[in-house]
């Protein structure tokens, strides 16, 4: 939302913009600003932004609804709300006279949203890259859009891949372990070890704390893959299992594909081996924790 408003201000110009808040401005104040601003800036388009309009009471809303019936032709009125139900008088009036832009995206749809943003700027990123960007940056839409713009500029028309995101994206969320679980699912021992080292190096946490987080994440991931394997054996497809497992459809597809690379015994053994790793890194071994992690990753990834 902040990015959209910034672009709107840049297009119209700060000299032609007035920024109000419903905390101090009434609906009548907003209407007056729309009608009077032209007296000061002359010809051209003008912008009035009003924040937190969900705070307006019925009289304020009534003034704005009446204005929207016959708005100033050269003024853009941007009403900003954290949440505004579609059946309110203000929302209905805006929908009738202008356009409602919603900046809320369900977390499970964020990778799809990221792919759409790449498309808007003429770039293309594969599904793994979009998912990794969400895991690295988090669910802040402004931050994601900033990273999309940066990656699109860097790619210069080439398809953006997972490795590009891992190397270039600025992490704001938990350090992503997607590269690690993806390499494990391919049974690529070398890639697993490299991914684990990169995760530990990039983390803002103490190395011991990050190692425990990686172990816990791997336990959860292997458990999900094991559940997917059982469902696949029952003839259930990934897209049908996604809702049952509360997983994004893309993540479910990935997990089902990874399940096909392991036997049931290997997955059960991996969970046991990760439990042993957890105990070893919490004082159960005299070896360095990093070495214990590497040994466990080799054990659960390599083919027996």
Short characterization:
With 304 residues, this protein is mainly alpha-helical. It has helices spanning 2-12, 27-36, 38-41, 58-68, 89-97, 110-120, 127-137, 141-155, 162-168, 178-186, 189-202, 207-233, 238-245, 249-259, 264-284, 289-301, and strands at residues 17-21, 46-51, 75-79. It has a 3-stranded parallel beta sheet, with helices on both faces.
What attributes does this structure have?
single chain; 304 residues; mainly alpha; Rossmann fold; Helicase, Ruva Protein, domain 3; Zinc Finger, Delta Prime, domain 3; three-stranded parallel β-sheet; 16 helices; 3 strands; elongated
What does the model show?
Helix 4 links the parallel strand 2 and strand 3. Strands 1-2-3 form a 3-stranded parallel beta sheet, with helices on both faces. With 304 residues, it is mainly alpha-helical. 32% of the residues are buried. It has 16 helices and 3 strands. The chain is 63% helix and 5% strand. It is elongated and about 75 Å long.
